[in-house]
Amino acid sequence: MKHTLNQMLDFVESRRVEERERILDQARVEAARLIAEAHRKARARVKEMVAQERRLREQALHGARVRAEIERRNHEMRLTQRALEQERRLLEAALLARWRDEEGRRAWLGSGVDQALTSLPGGTWEIVRPAALPLEDLAFLRARIRAGGVIEVVERSDPTLVAGIRIGCRGAWFDASLAGVLADGQGIEARLLALMRQP
Q1: 9 in any annotated domain
Q2: CA distances (Å), 21 to each of 10, 17, 25, 34, 49, in order?
Q3: pLDDT digits over 140-198, tens only?
Q4: Which UniProt keywords apply (predicted)?
Q5: Three-state SS sequence of 51-88
Q6: How many domains in the chain?
Q7: What is the CATH number of the domain that holds 181?
């Protein structure tokens, strides 16, 4: 009986050891699976963080490039605007020099009359001229108007007019003054830009 009891105790003990080993094996397998899963998740998180960091770096780089390009264009626009202002001043000075030259002034007056003849309606013309227009130029202007077929002319001087003339008829006006020539700022700037960009 004692022998049987010992056998039974040995059997129970061996079963307990086997069961413990089986449970430990299962725990080791589960632990290995959990560790592998944790490693996989950690690698995925690291990979996502690296990708996110790369995206953020690329966005920052793109933003910096865009800002640099905007700044470059703004700088170029400021330089172009300054150059245009300088060219506009030079153009105004050249026009005033042309007005001071007798031949240039007569060409200006003749061109103003010719353009007014094609753009104004028929009737009595009103001529606004500089107060200091020389008598010879006044005679030239009157002759040019008569040659264009305009019979009735009313003249008046304007002390604020420094160069050119303004011609009106029945409420319509053709402005061949310095201010009138320079009035189309955008058109002048476009032409100046085209000239500046020529090689």
Answers
A1: no
A2: 16, 6, 6, 19, 41
A3: 999 999 998 888 999 999 999 999 999 999 989 999 998 888 887 777 777 766 776 77
A4: Coiled coil
A5: HHHHHHHHHHHHHHHHHHHHHHHHHHHHHHHHHHHHHH
A6: 1
A7: 3.30.2320.30
